[in-house]
């Protein structure tokens, strides 16, 4: 599985699935979540409302993942996952690992060969970018792939991208 690090806008990536760092309501928000909802269009919000009504009336649990169509995005699917919120006391690294792992499993179940991840929980949820990079990159590298050929980490700023580059180089040097 090829891993690429990209600085830019995840909503413009030409991949089969983009991962949305969603909140548990699935109804949009700020950061990556808001950007994905705006770019995908109102159909995404409607699909998420339907998921809430039919499957997740209490909201999507932290670490879980669920997919919708991509609607107005170049990506065919949006995989919504809820990362842990360190500012709310959710500091267990296993919750963050689960968000990455369950997103990958959802991509496999969809048959996606390419996936773009944001830095889940590194923004407003207060996780340190290095911790997110280590957990995210390690989880992707340990995943068997099962049809996923490319995973992109689409990072919102140069400083966060540099952290991911450093962590990836450290992981490569250990192999």
From TrEMBL:
<dbReference type="InterPro" id="IPR002589">
    <property type="entry name" value="Macro_dom"/>
</dbReference>
<protein>
    <submittedName>
        <fullName>O-acetyl-ADP-ribose deacetylase</fullName>
    </submittedName>
</protein>
<dbReference type="InterPro" id="IPR043472">
    <property type="entry name" value="Macro_dom-like"/>
</dbReference>
<dbReference type="Pfam" id="PF01661">
    <property type="entry name" value="Macro"/>
</dbReference>
<feature type="domain" description="Macro">
    <location>
        <begin position="1"/>
        <end position="172"/>
    </location>
</feature>
């Amino acid at each position: 599985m090829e891993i690429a690090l990209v600085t830019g806008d995840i909503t413009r990536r030409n991949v089969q699935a983009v991962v949305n760092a969603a909140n548990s309501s699935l109804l949009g928000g700020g950061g990556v979540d808001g950007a994905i909802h705006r770019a995908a269009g109102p159909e995404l919000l409607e699909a998420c409302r339907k998921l809430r009504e039919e499957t997740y009336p209490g909201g999507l649990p932290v670490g879980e993942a669920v997919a919708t169509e991509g609607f107005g995005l170049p990506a065919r699917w949006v995989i919504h996952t809820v990362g842990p919120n360190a500012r709310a006391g959710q500091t267990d690294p296993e919750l963050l690992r689960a968000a990455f792992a369950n997103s990958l499993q959802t991509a496999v179940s969809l048959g996606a060969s390419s996936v773009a991840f944001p830095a889940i929980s590194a923004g407003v949820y207060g996780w340190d970018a290095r911790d997110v990079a280590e957990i995210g990159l390690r989880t992707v590298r340990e995943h068997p792939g099962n049809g996923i050929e490319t995973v992109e980490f689409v990072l919102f700023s140069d400083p966060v991208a540099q952290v991911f580059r450093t962590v990836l180089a450290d992981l490569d040097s250990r192999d």
